[in-house]
UniProtKB/TrEMBL annotation:
Superkingdom assignment: Bacteria
UniProt keyword annotations, A-Z: ATP-binding, Cell inner membrane, Cell membrane, Membrane, Nucleotide-binding, Transport
Topology in the lipid bilayer: Peripheral membrane protein
Any one GO molecular-function label of the UniProt entry: ATP binding
A Pfam family reported for this protein in Swiss-Prot or TrEMBL: ABC_tran
Chief location bin: membrane
Keyword Cell inner membrane among record annotations: yes
Organism, as annotated: Zestomonas insulae
Nucleotide-binding among keywords: yes
Protein's recorded name: Amino acid ABC transporter ATP-binding protein
InterPro entries referenced in this protein's UniProt entry, alphabetically: AAA+_ATPase, ABC_ATPase_HisP-typ, ABC_transporter-like_ATP-bd, ABC_transporter-like_CS, MetN_ABC_transporter-like, P-loop_NTPase
Family: Belongs to the ABC transporter superfamily.
Amino acid sequence: MIEVRDLVKVFDARGHEVRAVDNVSTKVARGEVLVVIGPSGSGKSTFLRCLNGLEQLDSGSVSIDGLDLANPKTDVNAYRREVGMVFQHFNLFPHMTVLENLCLAQKVVRKRGKAEREAKARALLAKVGIAQKADEYPSRLSGGQQQRVAIARALCMEPKVMLFDEPTSALDPEMVGEVLDVMKQLALEGMTMVCVTHEMGFAREVADRVLFFDHGKLLEDAPPAQFFTQPQDPRAQAFLKQVL
Ligand code: ATP
Ligand code: MG
């Protein structure tokens, strides 16, 4: 469903180039859950941003169901409608209620009528366990609740794939579980997901494959049972020693 081929993304950092994503190829099948891990600066966020068209690709290609981002004829907005993204900082609109946050893109992008978009929004709020917060402003919710709103907002667009960039890293420890539970539920329902996370328990339990990045390179791509017990690359071995 997602195909990444020879992807390269270079940044210019004060005169010298940083190969943030360095010749990465992989595929994600429908319903698969990938967990992406690696040291800080290894290119995890840049990789995700390339998957949803937030970055101009330097070379290589990224496609979803044959819609190719590298093809200049591809409508990037049409491509991005298929991809939901959730960030570390929830990025909710502070001046809008939870319900309004969930309805905005449905109205502007999907052109849904009021009744339809509100019904969708309420159904998804119920799904993530915060139906009663529809009319609150984001600042009156806990971090865990805000992140669940952000997930529900992305789901309102009925994306083919969900991307998560450290969705629990900004949360107090007691709120991590409620967000991971929502993600786990989504995975069980068959959502295709690519998740950057430091939650190794989630990776072990939920991931179909773990991808390990270092210096922009994809060094390991293996099922968790294999990755966590017998990582092949020395840098993956060293990384695991630190985090486990
Ligand atoms: P972290 O775990 O800290 O979030 P990461 O694995 O997500 O790190 P990226 O944010 O993808 O790493 O960054 C990869 C490399 O690209 C880093 O060297 C970073 O400094 C560089 N980089 C990222 N974005 C930019 C940018 N907009 N301009 C210049 N360099 C950038
Ligand atoms: Mg990052």
